[in-house]
Amino acid sequence: MFEFAQPWLLLLAPALAALILLLGRRSGDPAAVRHPCLDLLPAGAGSWRARARRTLFWIRLAALLLLVVAVARPRLADTQRVVEGEGIDIVMALDISGSMRALDFQPQDRLSVAKEVIRDFIAGRPVDRIGLVVFASRAFTQCPLTLDRSILLGFLDEVQVGLIEDGTAIGLGLATAVNRLRQSQAKSRTIILLTDGMNNVPTLEPATAAEAARALGMRVYTVGVGREGYAPYPVDDPVFGPSTTRIETRIDEDLLRRIAGLTGGEYFRARDPQALRDIFAVIDRLEKTRYETTVSTQYRELMALFAAPALALLLLEAALAATVLRRLP
Q: What is the CATH number of domain 83-293?
């Protein structure tokens, strides 16, 4: 959109034009002589230089008007757009213990399916800051809160079983996520904790971490991943090669329900890949804190497009007045 940063300066243009015309008429043409009988002079007397010299006035007038337009700062502006967003900071706390390699989400294991679903969830929330915490026997921040989706997805791709010693420290995983959100000023702060086991690392009780989340006004959604009973599990035997065995996995659903209930969240159970996708779709609908913001407008200044021709015209006038159209005494 074309506009002027200082449009009121354009009011100078008609006043300047009128002043120049008035001064031009008053000054007249000093190149005149008195003669007692004009009939003796040939009609149309005068050289082409004398006639062309009148154009200098119009060149100067055009240059000054262009300078007025340049001073008014013409520019192109992007149209301002109102963008709606969610205004939410979200931390994903993802279990990467050994049991996440179970193959009951065939043909992929639990962790691979969880990463795919999380990737889709991230792609669907482009204006929210999202972070990633992973935990097994310990917990650490894989990616802090960020709006940069490429960085976040890159860190998500690097997540795999074995990054941390085996174990399921649900309390540490939740506490690390809480600590990541502690300084957040977002309208809504949410944790999504995904695990397929029971807390077996007594370093920090999950209930203590949940109390901290509630005290800080954070909501925790808990997701239990995997089917009941036994699940196929890959084994890399150095003698017989890759094979599959069966392991029993148990999820402490009572604990996950307490964590969610204590913080105002919900508990979900995903027994297959589609159920996990549906759960994240539900969470996506639940976590909607709408806000409106105006995108900053960017300008491209066009002053030079008017100032340069004005200066060129002034130089042209000066050059012509000093050479071919110069006034002789």
A: 3.40.50.410
